[in-house]
Amino acid sequence: MVFSSTVFIFIFLPAVLCIHFLLNEKFRNLFILLVSLFFYAWGEQLLVLLMICSICVNFITGNLISACQKKKKNKSAALFLFLGITINLLALFYYKYIHFIVEILSDIGINIQADLSHIILPIGISFFTFQSISYLIDVHRKTVKSQQNIINLGMYISLFPQLIAGPIVRYADINKEIENRTITTDLFSAGISRFIIGFAKKVIIANNAGMMADLIFNIPVGELSTSLTWLGVLCYTLQIYYDFSGYSDMAIGLGKMLGFNFKENFDHPYISTSIREFWRRWHISLSSWFRDYLYIPLGGNRKGIYRTYFNLVIVFFITGLWHGASWNFIIWGLFHGLFMIIEKLNTYKLPARLTILKRIYLLLVVMIGWVLFRAENMTYAWHFILKMFSFSSGSNNIPYLYLNSFVIIVIFSGIVFAMPIRKFIEAKLSIITGNKEWYKFVNHSFYLLVFIFSVIELAQTTYNPFIYFRF
Q1: Binning pLDDT at 50, 70 and 90, where does residue 235 land?
Q2: Is 86 exposed, middle or buried (0-12, 13-18, 19+ CB in 10 A)?
Q3: CA dihedral in degrees (231, 234, 240, 245; nearest 10)?
């Protein structure tokens, strides 16, 4: 079940919200846990048992760590932390990387005769695994107290708004709201508005840009012209941003409707002037997770420049691997890591008046990186990138037939709204309307129209993938 589906929007969500409000507060966490497990089982069937096992393992481990610390048995606490992290990672590696590992072993001459066709990647396993690990580490660091109620911890790990595609919500950020939260009219209203914005991002921009990107990336490179490759990369650049940021907006909005305040996950990353800034704005929950739980524990930038470079390589290698069991993702991660290191060399500094060149540099690096991310294999990616700069014509121009006025408007809108223009428009609207009540009326009418248009757009298409589901 995806957020941008009629079943979720018109059946599941209204039912959940109605029952949630009618229930006594002391039963709400149990209810959210049950509906979250149902939500996950809807698409994953028996793999929901993996989620239940994760809840039990992390509940027991967290309390064992806490109990050892109370008895001043720090070595035992560290051992239980190690075991907890290991169990979480073993499950992740088994389901997500076993095929890739066997493939690598086969390439170096070690053939493993085993039928792995039954091993299916559970949706969202990378997200809830990282959430569980952050919980255990924070308990060990005494940032938070271990959760004594398995229902509360289970709800945190399985919370359906962010369960299958993030953002990665840390226990420390919402532990107080797990115990006690208040849903105000303003918070609920803000949640609806945020959900609608994410819904529109997904079905209007991401889906239409994605169809064009798929058309182009499914064509053999030899048949593509240089202009088509750039159109394909542009469309994929818009698709992946509006797909993932749209989902994050919907997750944040759903969280608000249930009384949770999730942190932002995107902050207009395409206006960045460096790769370092890009990663402060893109998938913020993941980049901050790696910073706090991997980069800083490795030593960060405190142990000399060469150790800093090494730490960056490790972080971006794992960043690539986190996104998928493929050399494409690993090379994509290292590609970004390379430019992080280059930027630390301070070789690309420009005067402030030439900031536009930095933005062009950033977009060029990111878009080339998206080719590595999107291509089915490295051979295709390499030839695709070469074609981008070959300035040649191609024999297949069919995608241009689909480039109608609506798609052009969608692409243009995607480019415009990748910049922080919405806040500017809202500020101007507030000034123009003057009266607060009139502003609310105009604002709510706008969101209603956007929602209706998005539903119409959804009803007209069967193309509705979520890119980050596989991560």
Answers
A1: very high
A2: exposed
A3: -140
Examine the residue annotation and report whether 323 is marked as an active-site residue of this protein: yes
Of 164, 181, 198, the residue at which a domain comes to its end is 181
| Integer Cα distance of 247 and 235 in angstroms | 18
Statement to judge: residues 152 and 238 lie in one domain: no
Burial zone of 222 (CB within 10 Å; 0-12 exposed, 13-18 middle, 19+ buried):
exposed
CB 202 within 8 A of CB 215: no
Verify that 39 and 135 share a domain, yes or no: yes
The residue among 182 and 236 whose pLDDT is bigger is: 236
Identity of the amino acid at 453: F
pLDDT classification of 438: cutoffs 50, 70, 90: confident
Q: Can you tell me which residue has the tokens 């390439």? A: 107
Domain co-membership, 275 together with 296: yes
Contact 326, 380 (CB under 8 A): no
What is the 3-class SS of 158-217, one letter each residue? HCHHHCCCCCCCCHHHHHHHHHCCCCCHHHHHHHHHHHHHHHHHHHHHHHHHHHHHHHHH
Q: CB 438: neighbour CB atoms within 10 A?
A: 11
CB atoms within 10 A of CB 362: 21
> Minimal CA–CA distance to 282: which of 396, 186, 365?
365
Residue range 2-59, pLDDT digits in tens = 888 889 999 999 999 999 999 998 899 999 999 999 999 998 888 999 999 999 999 9
Whether the CB-CB separation of 2 and 8 falls below 8 Å is answered with: yes
> Active-site residue among 323, 336, 383, 444?
323
Task: State whether 146 and 198 are in the same domain.
Answer: no
Give the separation between CA 454 and CA 197, rounded to whole angstroms: 10
pLDDT in tens, 334-366: 999 999 998 888 655 666 677 888 999 999 999
* Residue 126 and residue 248 share a domain: no
Of 282, 325, 400, which is closest to residue 125 (Cα–Cα)? 325
> In the chain, how many domains are there?
2
Q: What percent of the chain has pLDDT over 70?
A: 97
Confidence (pTM): 0.92
Total H helices, total E strands in the chain: 20, 0
The whole-number average pLDDT for the span 171-195 is: 92
